[in-house]
From TrEMBL:
PAC domain segment(s): 377-429, 508-559
Domain Histidine kinase: 577-790
Keywords on record: Kinase, Membrane, Phosphoprotein, Transferase, Transmembrane, Transmembrane helix
Regions crossing the membrane: 20-37, 261-282
Cited SUPFAM superfamilies: ATPase domain of HSP90 chaperone/DNA topoisomerase II/histidine kinase, PYP-like sensor domain (PAS domain)
Domain CHASE: 111-196
Protein name: histidine kinase
Ranges where the PAS domain occurs: 302-373, 430-505
Matches recorded under PROSITE patterns: CHASE (PS50839), HIS_KIN (PS50109), PAC (PS50113), PAS (PS50112)
UniProt-listed Enzyme Commission number(s): 2.7.13.3
C-alpha cells in the first residue's frame, strides 16, 4: 500500500513539472546517445581488430603449413644420412624435393656446421663449404639457437651468399644421440611473403615483417612501406620459429571518428524529437496506468505458468525444509521417480530416501552449503524407491534464502541417470574384457606413438612381465626403454630396418634379441603394423612373440647336424684307413705264404715263417689300435663327471717325472685350483699324457724344453692351453694331417701317428674340441675346449 502511495505522488509531480521532466529526459537520452556513439566507435574498432586478427591468423596458419612442409623436406633430406653419417642419393632425392616444392631456393646438408651438400649447386657455389660456427656473426648465433632448440628455426631475412634476400631454415640432426649437423632449406623473402600472404595489396592495411637483431638488439623491418610506420595503428603476431613479428598496419585509423559523426548528429536529432514526444507522453498518464495494470495481470499469468512448469517438469523437483529435512512441495515427476504419492513424500524426510552408502557425503556437502561455504552443489546419488529398488540420480541442491536470513528451505532437482550408470558399468566391463583378451595373448601386445624426435610407447600388455620380467609401468616410464634393452648386436640393424619400413609405410616383422630383467637374452619375433596418415605414419602396433625355445632348438639342430657331418667324415676317413691298412697287411701275408710254398730248403721256410710272424704281429697291433679307436667313437655310456684339472695335470707330470728330469724340462702349471671340466677320468689321463709326452719327445736340440699350462674361458667353456718351445709343426704343409691316423711329422723312429688321433677322438667324444697353433722351430700350442659344465 505504501509503494502505491509513493508511486501516485511521483506521477503527480511529473505531471505538474512536465517541462523539467522533459529536460531531465533530454539529458538522459543524450547521455545514452553518447554511450551508443562511443559503443559504435568501439564496435568499428573491434570489427577492424577482428578483421585484421583474422588476416594475421590466416598468415600464421599459412606459415605453419609452410613450416610443416619445410620440416618434412628437412626430415626427408636428413633420412638420406646413413649410419656412417654420410648422405646417400642426396642429389637424386634433393632434385625430387625441389621439383615438388618449387618455392624453395635450395636445400642443404650441413655436417658439423659446414655446408657440404647443396642442391641445386648452380648459382649457390659461394655458399659451399661455408662454416657457420667459424663465422662469428649472425650465422653462428642463429645456428647455435637452432641446435639448442632442437627444431626447425629460421635465420633471416638476410642477404644470402648466393645473392637476394632470404631466410634459411635449419633442422638440427642427431645421429646415435650425437649432434651431426643441420638439414636446411633456403627460401627467398619474396617466396616467403608470397607463401604466407604478406604480399597482399589492400587499400586499408599493409603488412610489415620485423625481427630483433641479436647482435644490435634493435628491431629491423624488411618489407617496403610507403608511409610513416606507427606502432599505435598496428596489430601484430609473433612467429617463434624465426623470432619474427608480423605487423598489420591500419591505414584508415584516423577515419573511424569521422565515420561516427553522422550517428552523433542523428542521435542529437532523435533526442530532441524524443524529448518533445516525452513531453506529450506525460499527458497520457491514464494510458500508462492502463498499461501498468495490464502488465500486472500478465505477471500473475506468468506466476501461474511457473507453477504449471514446476508441476509438469521433466525432472523431479522438490522444496525441502532445511531444518527438518521434510518435503514441503513435490512435483509429479519426483513422485513417479521414487514411487511415492505427493502426500507420502510430504510426510517423509529426505535423508530416509538416500542410499546409506551416499548419506555421509550428502550430509557433508549440505553442511557446507548451510554454513555459507558453497551456494549450491551437484552430485550423483542413489535413492531408495518405495519398492526398495535403488535408482541413480543427478541431483542439484540450492538454497532458497538470502544471505543473512534465517534457515528456511531449499530446492532439489533430481534427474534419473540409472540407464546412463548401467551403460557406464557395461563400458567398464567391456574395457576389462578387452584388456583380459589382450593379456591372454601368448605374446607382448604393444603400441607406440610416432613423433618428430622418435617413438614413445603408449601401451604394453601385462605379458611383458611373464616373458621379460618388466612391469608395464617400468616399460612405459621411459620413452627409450625398448631401445635401451635391445641386444647391442641388434640395435643398429633393427633401427635401420624399422626406419626403412616406416618410410614405405609397410607392415613388417623382424627377429631380434632383448635383455630380460634377470639379465638373460630372450629372442622375440616382432610382428609390426603401421597406422598411416596422409603425410607420415602416426602409430606402430605390434606383438612380440617369445621364440627363444625355437631359436635354441635351431641352434641345437645346427650343432647336431654339424656333429653328424663331422662323424660321417671321420667314419669315411676311418674306413679308408682300415681298408688301406688291412689290405696292405693281407697283401704282405699273401706274398709271404706264396714264397713259403716255393721255398726249397727248411732254412728258407724258417726265415719266411719268422717274417710272416712279424707281419701277423703288426696286423694284430693294427687291429688292436683300430679296436680302441672304434671303442672311443661308438661308446655312448662313457661316464662323465666334474674333474679337477690341476690335480690330473699334476698326476700326469708325476708319471712323466723321469723323462722330465732326463731332459731338464721346466713345466709351469698355472691352472687354478678350482678349475674343473666334465670329462671321463681315463680319457683325461690319456689326453694329458699324450700331449705332455709329445711336448717332451719333440724338443728343440738348441734349448731346454719349457712347457706352460694354463686355463681360460672361451664362450662360457673352460679352455686348457698347453704350450711348448719345441720343434714346432709346419701347419701350412701339414695342418690337415695333424690329427690323422698314422700321421707323423718330425721323422722320429718311434712315432706311430696314433697319439693325436686318439686324443682328438677322446676329446670330441666328450663334446669338446681341440685346436692347434704352431710355428716351425718355435713351438706348438694345443687348446682343449671342454664342453660346458653340465652334469648328465
Amino acid at each position: 500500500m505504501e509503494i502505491e502511495t509513493k508511486r501516485s505522488k511521483l506521477i503527480a509531480w511529473v505531471l505538474q513539472n512536465a517541462k523539467l521532466a522533459s529536460s531531465f529526459f533530454f539529458v538522459i537520452v543524450f547521455a545514452i546517445v553518447i554511450i551508443i556513439v562511443r559503443q559504435r566507435y568501439q564496435i568499428v574498432q573491434e570489427s577492424k581488430r577482428i578483421y585484421i586478427n583474422s588476416i594475421l591468423e590466416n598468415v600464421k596458419q599459412r606459415f605453419e603449413q609452410l613450416n610443416k612442409t619445410n620440416q618434412n623436406v628437412a626430415l626427408t633430406m636428413a633420412l638420406t644420412i646413413g649410419s656412417d653419417g654420410k648422405p646417400k642419393d642426396f642429389e637424386e632425392i634433393a632434385e625430387r624435393v625441389i621439383k615438388s616444392n618449387p618455392y624453395l631456393q635450395a636445400v642443404q646438408l650441413v655436417p658439423d656446421g659446414v655446408i657440404k651438400y647443396i642442391y641445386p649447386l648452380k648459382g649457390n657455389e659461394k655458399a659451399l663449404n661455408h662454416d657457420l660456427f667459424k663465422d662469428g656473426g649472425l650465422n653462428l648465433i642463429e645456428a647455435k639457437k637452432s641446435e639448442n632448440l632442437k627444431q626447425l628455426y629460421y635465420q633471416g631475412p638476410v642477404k644470402l651468399m648466393q645473392g637476394r634476400i632470404g631466410v634459411v631454415g635449419r633442422l638440427p640432426i642427431f645421429v646415435k644421440n650425437k649432434f651431426w649437423g643441420f638439414s636446411a632449406v633456403v627460401v627467398t623473402l619474396d617466396s616467403l611473403s608470397s607463401m604466407i600472404g604478406l604480399n597482399v595489396k589492400a587499400k586499408n592495411y599493409q603488412f610489415q615483417l620485423a625481427k630483433n637483431n641479436p647482435v644490435t638488439g634493435k628491431e629491423e623491418f624488411f618489407l617496403s612501406y610507403n608511409k610513416e610506420f606507427k606502432l599505435r595503428h598496428t596489430t601484430s603476431i609473433t612467429i617463434p620459429e624465426g623470432d619474427w613479428k608480423v605487423y598489420a598496419i591500419d591505414e584508415d585509423a584516423s577515419d573511424n571518428l569521422i565515420n561516427t559523426l553522422p550517428i552523433l548528429l542523428l542521435g542529437i536529432s532523435m533526442t530532441l524529437i524524443c524529448s518533445v514526444f516525452f513531453y506529450k507522453f506525460l499527458r497520457k498518464q491514464a494510458e500508462i496506468t492502463t498499461i501498468l495494470d495490464k502488465r500486472t495481470h500478465e505477471l500473475l499469468l506468468a506466476e501461474n505458468k511457473y507453477k504449471t512448469i514446476f508441476d509438469h517438469a521433466g525432472v523431479g523437483i522438490g522444496r525441502v525444509n532445511s531444518a527438518t529435512g521434510e518435503f514441503l512441495e513435490v512435483n509429479a515427476q519426483l513422485c513417479s521417480l521414487l514411487g511415492y504419492s505427493a502426500s507420502e513424500l510430504q510426510q517423509t524426510k529426505i535423508k530416509s530416501l538416500i542410499h546409506p552408502d551416499d548419506l555421509k557425503e550428502d550430509r557433508t556437502q549440505f553442511k557446507s552449503m548451510i554454513n555459507g561455504q558453497i551456494k549450491n552443489y551437484t552430485a550423483e546419488r542413489r535413492y531408495i524407491c518405495k519398492d526398495g529398488q535403488a535408482k541413480w540420480a543427478q541431483v542439484f541442491v540450492t538454497l532458497l534464502w538470502s544471505e543473512g536470513e534465517a534457515l528456511n528451505n531449499h530446492i532439489i532437482i533430481v534427474e534419473d541417470i540409472t540407464s546412463r550408470k548401467d551403460y557406464e558399468q557395461e563400458l567398464i566391463a567391456s574395457k576389462q574384457h578387452i584388456a583380459n583378451l589382450i593379456n591372454s595373448i601368448d605374446g607382448i601386445v604393444w603400441e607406440k606413438e610416432i613423433h618428430e624426435n622418435g617413438y614413445e610407447s603408449s601401451f604394453i600388455s601385462n605379458k611383458v612381465y611373464d616373458i621379460l620380467g618388466y612391469t608395464p609401468e617400468e616399460w612405459l616410464s621411459d620413452p627409450d626403454f625398448h631401445a635401451k634393452h635391445l641386444h647391442e648386436d641388434d640395435h643398429e640393424d633393427l633401427f635401420n630396418y624399422v626406419n626403412e619400413f616406416l618410410l614405405k609405410q609397410q607392415n613388417h616383422e623382424r627377429e631380434y634379441r632383448i635383455r630380460a630383467k634377470d639379465g638373460s637374452i630372450v629372442w622375440v619375433k616382432d610382428i609390426v603394423s603401421v597406422t598411416p596418415s596422409v603425410q607420415h605414419p602416426e602409430k606402430l602396433r605390434g606383438i612380440m612373440i617369445d621364440i627363444t625355445a625355437q631359436k635354441e632348438a635351431q641352434d641345437s639342430l645346427s650343432k647336431s647336424f654339424a656333429l653328424v657331418r663331422e662323424q660321417n667324415e671321420r667314419l669315411l676317413n676311418f674306413s679308408h684307413i682300415v681298408s688301406h691298412n688291412l689290405r696292405s697287411h693281407a697283401g704282405n701275408i699273401h706274398g709271404i705264404v706264396a714264397l713259403i710254398e716255393e721255398a726249397q730248403t727248411d732254412q728258407e721256410k724258417k726265415e719266411l715263417m719268422h717274417l710272416l710272424k712279424k707281419v701277423v704281429d703288426t696286423l694284430n697291433e693294427t687291429l688292436s689300435n683300430l679296436s680302441n679307436i672304434v671303442n672311443i667313437n661308438t661308446r655312448f655310456d662313457i661316464l662323465k663327471e666334474p674333474l679337477n684339472l690341476k690335480q690330473y695335470i699334476e698326476a700326469a707330470i708325476s708319471t712323466l717325472n723321469g723323462q722330465i728330469i732326463s731332459q731338464q724340462a721346466t713345466i709351469n702349471n698355472h691352472v687354478a685350483k678350482d678349475a674343473e671340466a666334465m670329462f671321463n677320468k681315463s680319457y683325461l689321463e690319456s689326453v694329458l699324457l699324450n700331449l705332455l709326452s709329445n711336448a717332451l719327445r719333440y724338443t728343440h736340440p738348441d734349448r731346454k724344453p719349457v712347457i706352460n699350462i694354463e686355463t681360460s674361458m672361451q664362450d662360457d667353456c673352460v679352455t686348457l692351453i698347453i704350450a711348448d718351445n719345441g720343434l714346432g709343426i709346419d701347419l701350412q704343409k701339414n695342418k690337415g694331417k695333424i690329427f690323422g691316423l698314422y700321421q707323423t711329422f718330425n721323422g722320429n723312429n718311434d712315432a706311430r701317428g696314433l697319439g693325436l688321433f686318439i686324443t682328438r677322438n677322446q676329446i670330441e667324444a666328450m663334446g669338446g674340441k681341440i685346436e692347434v697353433e704352431s710355428v716351425l722351430d718355435e713351438g706348438t700350442t694345443f687348446k682343449i675346449v671342454f664342453a660346458p659344465n653340465k652334469v648328465g
